[in-house]
Amino acid sequence: LACGYSSLAQNDNSRIFVEEENGIIKIINEHSCPYDISDNKKHVVIQSYGELSSYYWSEETGVIHIEGYGFAVSDEGVVAGYYVNEEGFSVAGRWYPETQEWEFLGMNPDMPEFIPDNLEYNQAWAMSNDGKTVGVMQFDEFWNTATYLWTERGGYVKLSNGGSNVTRPNAINSDGTVVAGIFTDDIGYRAPCYWVDGEIHQISNYLGEAMNVSPNGRFVCGSLKDSKNCAFIFDIINEELTMIENTLTDLPGPMTAMCVTDDGNAFGYISTGHTADYNTRRGFAYIEGELMSFEEYLIINGVQEAESWKVYSVNSVTPDGKTFIGAAEMKGEDY
Fold it and tell me: What's the rounded Cα separation, in Å, for the pair 29 and 55?
């Protein structure tokens, strides 16, 4: 996994390899999914594939294994996600690097009891960078889900579902007022949506998924299931949808915009295969209306060595647009 534009010290115990030049940091030597980086660039959360397992990383601690799925990390290093409690139920919580333990968000008053026939109680999928607002997918007795925002002061607050039986939050902006995620149509297919001040909005008539929202809450990004499987950026203020078509790879493949900045620039990956293997993905940048490979973007910004790199995926970016997490092959090694 690569995290750019930093320089740290080598730490063999935590499987971190550091290349001082251009600040490329190899965090972990496993097939895994880098998920989020804090705005202050000090904390990273990574998910493993195929198991309920994640990793937390910081310069001070190195890599720490987490039993559970981490989806977001705050400037204080707090991780939001879900884990299996002592009773065997998946529950939403926050994980703290100091104690290396989960703290349950508590029972949702709308679902005051665990349901024996459904071990999925609730899950945290998003969190504001200050760690104060957590986006929760809440299950009911019929396996339907609803989106809630949780805060320490206000507890669980349900967001509108627009008549959908299944919704899920994927990202929250800095002040917790805009949420990006999914809802399902009448047939059960996923479609991208967003919430502003608790009200749900459909992004387009296409299926797909909204993956992220810019820190200022203006732009939402993700993927569409249109005829060309485009990535998208949606401008909430102007209600304008930009569809990004794959013109970079010889093999056709769907595109996913994983993150978007306050000025509407997006980063993500193109899938050229039918598996989650990073070798079948190619990272891209969409800058001021121009699509380019992420290697080209790096070269334009002075990283000439990127000409020989193969960036598989760009998964998250800090608000200043200078620090990224993702997966890549550099100097013959997978990062």
Answer: 12
- Convert the pLDDT of each residue in 207-241 to its tens digit: 999 999 999 999 999 999 998 999 999 999 999 99
What are φ and ψ of residue 242, in 5° steps?
Answer: -110, 120
* Token representation of residue 234: 């949606």
Whether 178 contacts 158, CB under 8 Å: no
In terms of Cα–Cα distance, which of 192, 227, 236 is closest to 211? 192
- What's the pLDDT tens digit per position in 118-176? 999 999 999 999 999 999 999 999 999 999 999 999 999 999 999 999 999 999 999 99
Rounded to 10 degrees, the C-alpha dihedral 278/321/293/302 comes to -120
Over the stretch 37-67, which tens digit does the pLDDT of each residue have?
Answer: 999 999 999 998 777 899 999 989 999 999 9
**Buried/exposed code over 249-284 (b: 16+ C-beta within 10 A; e: otherwise):** eeeebbbbbbbbbbebbbbbbbbbeeeeebebbbbb
Strand ordering across the sheet containing 79-84: 69-73, 79-84, 90-96, 101-104
Instruction: With beta carbons less than 8 A apart as the criterion, state whether 291 and 283 touch.
Output: no
Distance of CA 155 to the CA centre of its chain: 23
